[in-house]
Amino acid sequence: MATWIYVKTPRNGYLSLCDAMFNFHLVRRFSLWSMKKDPDLEAVLHRNRRWVVNNQIKNIIMRCPDQVASVKYLQKKFKTLDLQGKALNWLKKYPCCFEVYLENDEYYCGMTKRMMFLAQEEESVKDMQEPLYADRLAKLLMMTRDQRLNVMKLNELRRNFGFPDDYLLRIVPKYPQIFRVVNHTGRRSSMEIELTAWNPDLAISAIETMAKKDGREPCFPCSLPPTWVKSLERFEDFNSTPYISPYSGFDGLVEGSKEMDKRTVGLVHELLSLTLWKKASIFKLGHFRRELCLPEKLNVLLLKHPGIFYVSNRYQIYTVLLREAYNGSELIEKDPLLVVKEKFGELMQEGLHEYNRRHYLLNLEKKRNRGMIMPKPEKRRNQSDETLEQEGGDLGGIFDPEERKRFYKVLFDDNTP
């Protein structure tokens, strides 16, 4: 005889067993993404969308004649940048980065001297690091099943690895002994980069390099506190089996086996080691599932190894980050290109603070003129105040110059993505 089971809810209602099981599976599905939040690493994943947009605007301006673009042209590009509103208003928010001027009743935009200097510094770093980019690209191809990658797929992650946007014209043709561009169908979507020469000196992972430096067998480092007892036990069990290099190929490995999982963990570790920020979107990594023989549920595998990876779903974008690469929220080693990019972010933020301060003071003046803000009556100064001022005493608080700087930083700071 069938028996219906009802589950009491907090609102004194009842759910059938079917509904309860549905909710259980729903909770279980979300629990697959659960990982104890690390405030420092969450701060690393903070996406400053303003920085991304301004970097793209900079690239657009640099491709224009004399490196000057009309605001009308940038307005059309705003759709591709997923922005709304007027481009003129956006550009004026960053006076340290962009110069806007009127000529023949039309607005034009160029870059400030400081911005031009950073753009030139970035190009100089890219020129110096071209051999490094070639090695990095070769290592990516060496980890694939057929030593080839689809160009359109690679473009999704090219900036993660620091490759310039024109790497196909700037880097690949300079190394014909290593790379070859093939296209068997003639369609743009089927264009591939193929490795033509295997370099054994590059077939050494970051894990193997660290082990050789320390004079030990290759194994994964663990970045977990001692209180995570169960996770540490699982990590020790996983680490007790021999390390499998991501450059060793797939011969003899069975999909779903412990050995295959070991190689996959090593492969993702090596991929993240090659990126600028030591992190990547799990969704974009999934584009290479066939080429890199990644499991269909890569997220589940990565969550089993919290000592190696940190997985977050901040902004509804699932991202994996290499724990060992960070000390708190700071990268231990920074790529020279990343140092230049951080300077750009600081310049952008400086301009935004300046704009916000001027905008705030302008609105304050308008309110005063309308009589919305009444001036505060001056307090009668007593003798002790006058004596303190004559003696050069420090009034402290907002009257202190350093305190004023901190006040304005808090008041006008804008970290919204």
From TrEMBL:
InterPro entries: PORR_domain, PORR_fam. Coiled coil: none annotated. Residues 36-352 form the PORR domain. Residues 373-400 are annotated as: Disordered. This is Protein WHAT'S THIS FACTOR 1 homolog, chloroplastic. The lineage of its organism: Eukaryota, Viridiplantae, Streptophyta, Embryophyta, Tracheophyta. The gene is LOC114073823.
